[in-house]
Specification:
- The structure holds 2 protein chains of 2 kinds.
- By secondary structure, chain A is mainly α.
- Chain A is built from 4 helices and 2 strands, in the order αααββα.
- Chain A has a two-stranded antiparallel ribbon.
- In chain A, helix 1 packs antiparallel against helix 4.
- Chain B is α+β, with helices and mostly antiparallel strands.
- Chain B has a 5-stranded mixed β-sheet, with no helix packed on it. Chain B has a 4-stranded mixed β-sheet with strand order 6-11-15-10, covered by helices on one side. A 3-stranded mixed β-sheet of chain B has the order 1-2-3.
- In chain B, helix 1 runs parallel beside helix 3 and helix 10 packs antiparallel against helix 12.
- The longest helix of chain B is centred in the middle third of the chain and has 35 residues.
- Chain B is elongated and about 125 Å long.
- The C terminus of chain B is likely disordered.
- Classes of the chains: A mainly alpha, B alpha+beta.
- At the A-B interface, helix 1, helix 2 and helix 3 of A face helix 2, helix 3 and helix 4 of B.
């Protein structure tokens, strides 16, 4: 098991939660989402985001609308659905629990 | 200098370097195959294409050509197809159990592009069943030899299976677990691929591009062999034809004096007018040169794969020439055939004899008209009177054609006298012409004091042409009397040996025995 692989797996696992988090703040199109993820050092490769977005949309956690762009191709603006918001809140709880558990565990091993 | 390809992605036009285009196309194809199992595959691909458009628009300003490096950068940014594929659906309930297995567990049948002879099918089979490729190849060969079925099986597998291009595909090719799901999708995909591949193939065959290098090499090899054969064949036709037309060698053993005659001399004796003779030569030359040259041209084209605008015109000219040749030959054939249509016959009784026995004598003294310097012995050699004499030997000399061999027919006389009759025959377009030819035949023959002296051949003017001229001696023999030749009774037949039962080439020697020539 190599370190790099574990890191990317961890990132990927949390990616879904992050995307929901971004869209929870307001609608965005993929390039914006990518930009934010990249800014937060969360991005492995851009390609992973697209299947994820489609999957979330198919699960009706996200919805989208098309918007023409003056500078390029039409943009697909994603926004979170009520179901998605619910899912996000659940995930947030899980995340907080995990975070606490992990930090607790790692602190213990450290000391 | 590089070739460019103009494409549009999601309605946006770009100009790409050819290599950049190839890479992008392969990338998108790989993505499509990796995402095959994904729900909403088309949507994902659309999103990715839109992203590519965005990235391309960032990188290139208006109408600039997209370079290979730029495509490579974009691909790096988007991630390799494997990165997409490994993103298994985790949130959907019913698939979560399966998704614990990594993608590589789905064993799929791919063609192995790493060590192919033709399409890498054997390599794929070997990887799939985890056996050595050598065994698979042996199986294919055995099947081919046994029922010839190896070839269609191979071709079907070649069309149906995709090539393992990316690392993940190669992994899948050698993966371990096989489940019902993967087999099911494989069948579904196979039908799509057959459809796609047949389309692609027809296009590839038309353009000749895109075939695997090995197939190309094989086709080229066949082309070279065929090309060399055609050039050689064409050359042989041209040389043979030129020799017969321009050199006209004396090859035909038709002369009495042991010399050979040429095709040209012979055909001059055959065709009615020199014009017809020229026509026949022209016709043969047109056909022969057209066939020879077009064969050589095709061979050269196969050998060096060159194309030119004038080629079509060239082939058209050859075809026209050949057709003209055929028309000429038909014309000459018909008009010559007509001159054989009617057979004329002139007969004349030259005398009678009252004695008991008539002696036949082949006279070497009787000179053949205008052939004083002819070797008479050679002319008469081997002749014996028979119903069907050998008529093969001819000679053209001093404007006359000499034919050796005359027929001698015996019959019963109606009275007590020997009757000797000469019949001359020839063919012509009309009775008049046929009889005229028959009348032109010169056949020296004398009947005096119980001896019938005659030449073993006859002659006629060369301008009459060879029109089946024949001479027949009809001898009517009274009962109880006989015909003697060379001291032997030749009629009535003394023994079982009926002369005609012996080969036409049977000749009598001094002791009177038959001997085949």
């Amino acid at each position: 098991m190599n370190v790099e692989n574990t890191q990317s797996q961890m990132r990927k696992g949390i990616l879904e939660y992050c995307i929901l988090g971004i869209l929870n703040k307001g609608e965005a199109y993929p390039s914006e989402i990518l930009e934010k993820l990249r800014g937060a050092q969360m991005l492995v490769v851009e390609g992973t985001v697209y299947p994820l977005l489609t999957r979330l949309k198919n699960l009706e956690l996200l919805s989208y609308r098309w918007e023409e762009s003056t500078s390029g191709p039409p943009r697909k603006y994603y926004c979170i659905t009520p179901k998605g918001t619910q899912f996000y809140t659940d995930l947030s709880h899980t995340w907080q629990e995990l975070q606490q558990a992990v930090s607790l565990l790692t602190q213990i091993t450290k000391s | 200098m590089n070739k460019t390809v103009s494409i549009h992605i999601q309605g946006f036009a770009f100009i790409l370097e050819e290599q950049a285009y190839d890479q992008l196309r392969n990338y998108l194809n790989d993505l499509a195959s990796v995402l095959q199992h994904e729900e909403g595959k088309d949507e994902i691909l659309q999103d990715i294409e839109l992203r590519i458009v965005e990235l391309l628009q960032e990188k290139v300003t208006n109408q600039q050509v997209v370079q290979l490096e730029q495509i490579q950068q974009i691909i790096q940014l988007l991630g390799s197809p494997e990165a997409f594929g490994e993103e298994e659906p985790t949130s959907t309930g019913q698939t979560s159990a399966e998704s614990t297995e990594p993608m590589a567990a789905h064993k799929r049948f791919f063609r192995d592009p790493e060590n192919p002879i033709l399409g890498g099918v054997a390599g794929g089979v070997a990887a799939y069943f985890n056996i050595d490729i050598v065994f698979v190849r042996i199986f294919f060969v055995l099947f081919t030899m046994a029922f010839g079925s190896g070839i269609p099986i191979y071709i079907i597998l070649w069309i149906v299976t995709p090539r393992a291009l990316t690392a993940s595909e190669k992994l899948q090719m050698r993966g371990r677990a096989v489940n019902v799901e993967s087999i099911k999708t494989e069948f579904k995909e196979a039908t799509e691929r057959v459809e796609k591949n047949t389309k692609k193939w027809t296009q590839q065959f038309r353009t000749g591009s895109g075939m695997s290098e090995r197939t190309n090499r094989f086709v080229n090899f066949i082309k070279k062999v065929l090309g060399s054969l055609m050039v050689l064949w064409g050359l042989a036709v041209l040389i043979t034809l030129s020799i017969f037309i321009f050199i006209d060698p004396k090859l035909i053993p038709a002369q009495i004096n042991g010399e050979f005659t040429s095709l040209g001399e012979l055909s001059a004796l055959f065709f009615e007018t020199s014009q017809l003779n020229q026509f026949i030569y022209l016709g043969v030359a047109l056909i022969g040169y057209a066939v020879g040259l077009s064969s050589m041209l095709t061979g050269i084209r196969l050998l060096f794969t060159f194309e030119a605008k004038w080629l079509r015109g060239g082939y058209l000219a050859f075809s026209i020439a050949a057709v003209c040749g055929v028309v000429l030959l038909i014309f000459v054939g018909v008009s010559t055939g007509k001159s054989f249509a009617i057979e004329g016959e002139l007969s004349k009784e030259i005398g009678t004899y009252t004695g008991d026995s008539l002696r036949l004598d082949i006279s070497t003294d009787l000179h053949l008209n205008g052939a004083a310097n002819l070797n008479a012995n050679a002319y008469h050699q081997g002749y014996r009177p028979s119903k069907n004499p050998d008529q093969g030997i001819i000679l053209a000399h001093n404007g006359r054609i000499f034919i050796s061999g005359i027929a001698v027919n015996y019959s019963a006389s109606t009275d007590t006298l020997f009757h000797v009759k000469i019949v001359k025959k020839a063919n012509g377009a009309s009775y008049y012409k046929a009889n005229l030819r028959a009348a032109h035949i010169d056949f020296p023959c004398e009947l005096a004091t119980g001896q019938l002296s005659f030449a073993s051949g006859f002659s006629y003017p060369a301008k009459d042409r060879m029109r089946d001229q024949e001479v027949e001696l009809q001898i009517a023999v009274p009962t109880g009397k006989c015909v003697i030749w060379n001291g032997q009774v030749v009629f009535p037949y003394t023994s079982m040996e009926e002369p005609n039962s012996v080969s036409d080439r049977a000749y009598v020697y001094g002791d009177g025995e038959y001997s085949a020539w």
